[in-house]
Specification:
Blueprint (H helix, E strand, L loop, with lengths): L7 E4 L12 H14 L14 H14 L5 H19 L8 H8 L4 E5 L4 H10 L8 E3 L12 H9 L8 E5 L2 H8 L4 E5 L3 H6 L6 E3 L11
This protein binds magnesium ion.
Length: 221
Amino acid sequence: MGNKSIKGIIFDMDNTLLQSKINFAAMKKDTYDYIVKLGLLPENSELLNLTTAKIIERALESATKKGKMTEELKKEIWSIPTKYEVLGMEKAPLEPGVEDLIKALYGKFLLVVVTNNSVEAAIRAFRDNNIYQYFDLIVGREMVKSLKPSPDGFIYVLERYKTISPDEWLSVGDAWLDGKASIDVGIKFISYKGDIQKMNTMGVYPYAEINDIREVLRFII
Ligand SMILES: [Mg+2]
């Protein structure tokens, strides 16, 4: 199973590196309610099948069409998920084994994070857990046009490290959207404590499944 050609690993943050307790369902419902209240999208419970980021993207598209789009509006809407993130990440510890893994990989592989969360929140969480210094690059939502499951964050990484091809990266995450975004650019995806059935339903078939983050080592060394 070992793969000697791997040069870097791209991690998801929430519930992959960090034991976040973000209430994603409430975050989504609250954001949706607010957007409907603003009249940017019609009431349609099917929207709740989308990710929070996608609902916001649709709302901002609608605002643009209506000539109501401003940076302030964008900030105002994003403040709702941000509130849930800050709450869920407060004093969040690392997932078990993360520190061991990161230290084992450091200096031998590029270590990158692609998160739908904000860069600022990621930096704070990694600093609090004393692992910030090990990462080569953190790509957060301020840096890309579309969030996962869109592959923009992964494209950003590939552009930044032009000499490293997609098959020399490995991606690790807990959610189908991490898998979708990776696989769409040809990066192998390892599911960490993921819901494989849900992933398959979304057309995501992981390269491997692990339940201890340290198992990543099996695929690269
Ligand atoms: Mg996650």
